[in-house]
Amino acid sequence: MLKFDSQGLIPAVIVDDATGEALMVAFMNSEALQLTRETGQSHFYSRSRQKIWHKGEESGNVQEVRGIFVNCEENSVLVRVVQHGDAACHEGYRSCYYRRLLPDDTYETVAERIFDPAEVYHHHTAVETEVVESSEAYVPQKLESALRQLYGIYTYLRDHDLSNESNTSRLLHEKDAAYLISRVDDELGELTGVQRGEHVHAGLQADTRLEGSQVCYWLFLLAVMNAVPFDDFGPHASLLLGYTGQYSAEKAQSVRAECLQLLTSDDPVQFAHGLRSGFAFVGWACVSAGISPLDPSDYDLAQMRKKGLIHE
């Protein structure tokens, strides 16, 4: 008898029946598993929306089930499928595992994108439907945890004068708001240039990860210097709003302009809104580049581990 967890879920590893290639991992409840067996096509359970979803119902990239196998502890299943449409990943790749983890904790994309998600998923609900629910790259709680960790580190550097050891601490103690806003402006411009193909170093995804992390860094310094509570500007929610908002390029640039305008406001509410706009712009850049909204914060946390600011 299968052993579902306390939430009534069991992880399902989806592999190509012909090659054994791992395509994705998602969750099933008993109903999704039953539908998978009855229809011969993969069905999963969305933890965020708390409903069943039929793989490929929006994109047409359905999975024809060839066999379901149970592991030794009966707490996971492996489903062998024929992947129709050639792409299992909602980001448009054959497999969700299209990135290699490098020694410096960055990612290298090692596969070609088969389709453009923006052309396939026409609204927010559709994007959510195709998200691999078990993928930690898209779990909002993980994003919030990472950003709270960064906020906590910058707050510590504000409250402890480590100027001789930390440039960030020095900046926070100098309290030069105009300089910090100018840096936000610079990095927003570079992030825009990356999306337009005008600012190129290592490629679209790597450059978006780097420049996005820089925008977040300067926004965080402004928030911490002005003692804006984390929950007052909710960078995780703002970033996800930009990521799922299906912004046009014109809309994204209006969000960028709004950020810079409101960061000069003396009104705390307007200032916090400016911070939110900045994070939303980073979210838009991430989805435009085909990377996770978690990538910029993961990049910053990796750098802090190297500097010994985080010990795990």
Overall outline:
elongated
| Poorly predicted tracts of residues | 122-139
Order of helices and strands: EEHEEEEEEHHHHHHHHHHH
Distance between the termini: 38 Å
Largest sheet: 4 strands, mixed
How is the secondary structure organized here?
Blueprint (H helix, E strand, L loop, with lengths): L9 E7 L5 E7 L1 H10 L3 E4 L4 E4 L8 E8 L6 E7 L15 E3 L5 E3 L7 H4 L3 H7 L9 H20 L7 H8 L2 H20 L7 H22 L4 H4 L1 H10 L4 H14 L5 H22 L5 H12 L6
Parallel strand pairs: 1-6
Antiparallel strand pairs: 1-2, 3-4, 5-6, 7-8
Helix pairs in contact: 4-7, 4-9, 4-12, 5-7, 6-7, 6-11, 7-11, 7-12, 9-11, 10-11
Task: Describe the structure in brief.
The protein is of the alpha+beta class and 312 residues long. The protein contains twelve helices and eight strands.
Structure, described:
The chain has 312 residues and is an alpha+beta fold. The chain has two domains: 10-130, Ubiquitin-like (UB roll), CATH 3.10.20; 136-306, no CATH class. The protein is 49% helix and 14% strand. The protein contains twelve helices and eight strands. A four-stranded mixed β-sheet has the order 2-1-6-5, covered by helices on one side. The longest helix is centred in the C-terminal third of the chain and has 22 residues, at 204-225. The chain is elongated and about 65 Å long.
From the structure above, extract its key features.
312 residues, alpha+beta, Ubiquitin-like (UB roll), 4-stranded mixed β-sheet, two-stranded antiparallel ribbon, 8 strands, elongated
